[in-house]
Amino acid sequence: MLSDVGELPPVPFTRTFRRNPLTPLPVPLPFFEDMDAILLTHRHFDHMDKKAISVLNKRTPVFCQPEDQAFLRAAGFLNVQAIQNSFEWCGIQLKRIKGQHAQGIFTKLLGPVSGFILSTAADGSIYLVSDCVYAPAIEETFRENQPDIAILHTARAQLLFGTIITMTAEDILRIREVSPATRIVAVHMDAISHCTLKRQQLRTFLKERSLENAAIIPEDGEVIAF
């Protein structure tokens, strides 16, 4: 999502009327002109907005779930690779993990979403979980793969009727139990109007349980090296 503050509408089916995004980009737009590849987990506007479509180099390889391939090609991207199960690119193995953005009636409304495990023999694995709620399939993925790093969207994003559509602080504790060696990076907070968990609240939650080191919680623009 590359739009300026307030350029985008409120998230539909939520209790808030605040426009998005809430915070400015931590880098200038030219930063995105020269990238090796793009990985799209799903095409909600906070993951691929009109500004991104206009700015991103259309010749850049784009990896996505099968449901988004036609959309990306219609948007002008020339090198779109839909990943059904797995795909190898430049020595990196990309494994798609089918996700679930919500429970109950909102599952169909929000549409498909995928996570991806990226791995190499030399560097280990990173699991980009994306906008997924904690579900049995996600738990099994952690049990089976034991990723070295997991990027969790722990924003506790909320729709009407209290429906939670991302992971929460409590899910960090669940993942630590099933995959204790995984280093967790908690993101997707403080920038979108329907995200109800703030970074500071998550830090307090973990500190109260003497788990300050259970997750890395980066600030906007912070670079993390592993």
Automatic annotation (TrEMBL):
<dbReference type="GO" id="GO:0016787">
    <property type="term" value="F:hydrolase activity"/>
</dbReference>
<dbReference type="InterPro" id="IPR050114">
    <property type="entry name" value="UPF0173_UPF0282_UlaG_hydrolase"/>
</dbReference>
<dbReference type="InterPro" id="IPR036866">
    <property type="entry name" value="RibonucZ/Hydroxyglut_hydro"/>
</dbReference>
<keyword id="KW-0378">Hydrolase</keyword>
<protein>
    <submittedName>
        <fullName>L-ascorbate metabolism protein UlaG, beta-lactamase superfamily</fullName>
    </submittedName>
</protein>
<feature type="domain" description="Metallo-beta-lactamase">
    <location>
        <begin position="20"/>
        <end position="189"/>
    </location>
</feature>
<dbReference type="Pfam" id="PF12706">
    <property type="entry name" value="Lactamase_B_2"/>
</dbReference>
<dbReference type="InterPro" id="IPR001279">
    <property type="entry name" value="Metallo-B-lactamas"/>
</dbReference>
<comment type="function">
    <text>Counteracts the endogenous Pycsar antiviral defense system. Phosphodiesterase that enables metal-dependent hydrolysis of host cyclic nucleotide Pycsar defense signals such as cCMP and cUMP.</text>
</comment>
